[in-house]
Fold this protein.
Amino acid sequence: MATAEAEIQAGYHPHGRTGLWDWITTVDHKKIGLLYGATSIIFLLLGGLEALTIRTQLIRPDNHFITAEAYNQFFTMHGLTMVFLMGMPIAVALFNYIVPLQIGARDVAFPRLNALSYWIFLCGGLFLYSSFVIGAAPNGGWFGYANLSERPFSPGPNMDFYSLGLQILGIASIMGGVNFVTTIIQLRAPGMRLMRMPLFTWMAFVTSFLLITALPVLAVALFFLTFDRFWGTNFYMPAAGGDPILWQHLFWMFGHPEVYILILPAFGIVSEVIPTFSRKPLFGYAVMVYSGSLIGLIGWGVWAHHMFATGLGPIADAFFTISTMIIAIPTGVKIFNWLATMWGGQLKFTTAMLFSVGMIAAFTLGGISGVMHATSPHDLQQTDTYFVVAHFHYVLVGGTIMGVFSGSYYWFPKITGKLMNETLGKWHFWLWFVGMNLTFFPMHFVGLLGMPRRTYTYSAELNVGALNALETVGSYIMGVAAILYIWNLVRSYRKGEPAGHNPWNASSLEWATTSPPPEYNFGRVPTVRNREPLWLEGKEQVIADAQAAPGYIHMPPPSYWPILTAIGIATTFALFMTHVWWAPLIGLAATALCVMNFAFESTT
Amino acid sequence: MDHAATLPAAGHAETATGLNTFKVGFWVFLGSETLFFGSLISTYLVYKHQSISGPYPDQVLNIPLTSVSTFVLLMSSLAMVLALAGVQRGNRRQGLFWLFMVAVLGSTFLGFQAYEFTEFYHKGLTLQTNLFGSTFFVLTGFHGAHVTVGVIWLLTLWVQGLRGELPPERSLTVEIAGLYWHFVDIVWIAIFTLIYLLQ
Amino acid sequence: MFVRERELPRGRGLARKAAVALAGLWVALALAGCSGPHPQSTFRPVSHYASTLNALFANTFWWTMLVLAVVWGVLLIVIIRFRERPGAEPPRHVHGNTTMEILWTIGPALIVAFIAVPTVRTIFQTQSAAPRDALVVEVIGHQWWWEFRYPQYGGIATANEVHLIQGRPVDFVMHSADVVHSFWLPRLGGKRDVNPQPETVGNTAKRVNHIVLTPDSIGVYPGQCAEYCGTEHAVMRVRGVVQTAADFNAWLQAYNTPPAPPAGSVAAQGKQVFETHMCLACHTIQGTSARGVIGPNLTLVGGRQTIGAGALPTSEASFQRWITHPQGVKPGVLMPGIQEGAAGMPPTGLTGAQVQQIAAYLGSLRIPAGQPGANPVAGGTPAAATMAPPAPAVPGAGLPAAATSHDSMKSPTTSGKP
């Protein structure tokens, strides 16, 4: 590719060319990261709109803002969107953009596979959302419990969108996981030992392992459901001896690691932001790495704590009670180490720091209520009520989303070369923080006062109308905060202050190169001698290397096969909806053709 | 140019571990596959003896026949080893012959499976009949699909070899196909043991 | 520390204000949470089982509050004390402190142990088998209503209101007729999933769950399905009626010899219509030819507080509304109306007059006022009054649907307000 090479040598190209075709065919990890980011923010807004609709319906008892059926579709799509189309991809967006920069790589291990992951994810999201067009969005909850999700009880196409859509998204996630595990194992710069990697990269590493191990289990569970629905197999059909509880086991074997897939990236972000704005290195680095890995590992042995009410017997209940409580220990250690990092530091409360500190406060509360759930006899009073809704929203909104907000304020200057507006940012933080607490804190009470979740209405008799109204007000405040955030992103992108290569005086490698980084990331790949390459000795050399004029650098050329292959895969699954047995085979043939071309495409 | 045809660009660079990136990536992928087949096999085992109507495994499973097809598949792994050795040493004839043999043996295995499936169908066992039918066909079907992909992959390599595009320095592509093939083979050993032998 | 704080009046003030505001919010919420009648509150147990759970929860709650206080406390101190100050020396780079880290690993580990030990003990305590003399109640979940059977009392079946005896242990034996539900009477104790039973070769029961408890206070305690089970999951409500043994017996008595409407009355015409139309295909009424088992058993339905599993307070007007257009009350319900089919069944095609007659008949299916058991919780303490029957109680049988009963339709589910 003489042209690409010529361009690189001609000088500085933040993101190469920027035409539509370039975005479609790009294999640059930074551009793909931006695509992931933009897409998941759009889905964040969609999921948010669904949430506001839900909250509006629940503003008073016996309300008739939307119908029961619409409500059920909305809460299902809200869950699916926030988990699969926002929470996971927004983390992957940051992995994409930041991890190669943090470890001193020029790209991910498999750039085209990376593009393929993104396009499959996008196709899966579009497929899932196309269900709204025909008014038949999934309506069985994000957890899609069998046998409600089976044909006899869900005859419409709703749960077909669910079983096929998640399958598509799962493929993208597994590919992403493979790519990041390989990238982190293989593409570290000289001297970047595992125990010198920034915590964010470490958490990306653990998360990617969880992706490649948890998603196949979901794939199997979904295949069973799809086969049951389309070809009359008996996996979850009690009439033929099938057991719906099998779905619960398979789903939560995926579902609990999934929880850590959602939260560990936020842990990673906070572990970058706190040291930077405390002007102190992370306290207890090794313990932070081990505890994060341990959380990922034990996360595999706790799935049945979602099933205490299922009736597994006292021995299983005791086992999963204890394993779940044990997870609280490494989590607690993490929190204490963050506090110790700040202790004795000089805290600079930028918006990024505010979100990280807010995350610690909110996540701790979510963790606390998690221990309350683990008290399994009393979980029988808590589970499937708003108490659980409160718990996981503190973890996912207070933990994951606040963490991601923190990360986006932190890395925005690296990505665009411009600072985000701090005034708007602080408004964003305070509105979000207040709105979040107003929305989710009362849910603890509402749940223990007897309101089950996933109910489109509630009786006035329950006497929880006032608290629900308060929650709805809180959710509107969060809506305003989200709009401010988007506005800040757009405005800062257009006229933000120039950032320079290291506006926060941070310690890790991504800050050595220019903002935004050139297509090839580093002029010369720096040699890493310590854990804080931009704080400790040798930092001048690292920066000089990173920003050096590039010599001959081979970057992979763009390719349109990823998007075509992705369309092929998504089409294959979508064609199941025709109920014509050979229709998916057409998609499969097209996919095979694309895969062949993908495989034989020259990457030189 | 050819050298890099199926390798990622990053594979050129010296890696942190000294291992080939494509190979590491493939191992990671196989890890994921293990969980996939693990879940399928577990489901089969959980549902063992839970069918409420026949045909039951002992009425249809033909161990002698499947032993033969298992043997065929095992031999294909041996052929795979020989094929890789041929390609690595630049022995074009050996490489081509054994690559083709792997594909032939793999196809033979698929033939056995097709025969087995039809036989079961005639004995009244379908996907829908009972839990045994559902779990058995879905598990072995997914395995068969993996073998099919492998056969296509190997034939593709074979055609490349015929056209002289498999010099020793490209032996890695054969090695990775081999990884896949051995993996699929091992999965079958597990299936054969747990489903056919330990009824 | 105090010196440093004085240097930072702004930060200190902000943090203090935030803390005060937060504390205020919490107190307000706690008050809101505890005030007023909350008939489904888990905080007001009426069985030993529910009290045990609460005691366990209290243990966990205070330990975790300690952790929360420590974390938030330290966080607050850090935020105030270690704010960036102009001209200060850069902080010392501390990479860790093994002693501290071991301490704050052991600390949480100990707290976890203090929580886990009583928890595991309670797990085994609360899942033990029911005593022999327990009242066995078979609970069957349906989309979207509850069926209760009493195998010790001739297998009689009732729906959506489960009658229990004060002081007598009850063993709920639960399974589902369709999808997964969860049976939950919050004041009586924790929920359990109501699972569909996979068919087995020897018809051995699988996935049957039990809840064993002893109600200790007379009263009517509402609950509802807690596992999402489809369109009308929200309106799959249940009431636990805890009675004296005498009242329970009166109810049994009335159940087995249900009142017959006086000949020639509107209600008697309703009975006639009921028995000659589609109704009997799905419903059973004891002592009549209606023996359907698909829908709820309607014996003594006029004495229940609600109809449609909590969709409407019981009244003749409600019955009329329900029979005429059930989809308008509970969209998705598997019962046909006079003009609309449902669940594969054709419309009933009843006339307005017939609907009125059936409503009168159903309303009459209750223990007549003044007789023992007419008020199911008459023997109760004043506390039970919090769950009094809905205000517009069924007027006398044969009365046409009065305009006054329409008031109840404006707030269909606001029953039980004192």
In short: The interface with chain A takes residues 1, 4-10, 12-13, 15-17, 19, 21, 24-25, 28-29, 31-33, 35-36, 39-40, 43, 46-47, 50-52, 127-128, 130-131, 133-135, 138, 142, 156 of chain B (CB under 8 Å). Residues 150 and 180 of chain B are 7 Å apart (CA to CA). Chain B is about 75% helix and 0% strand.
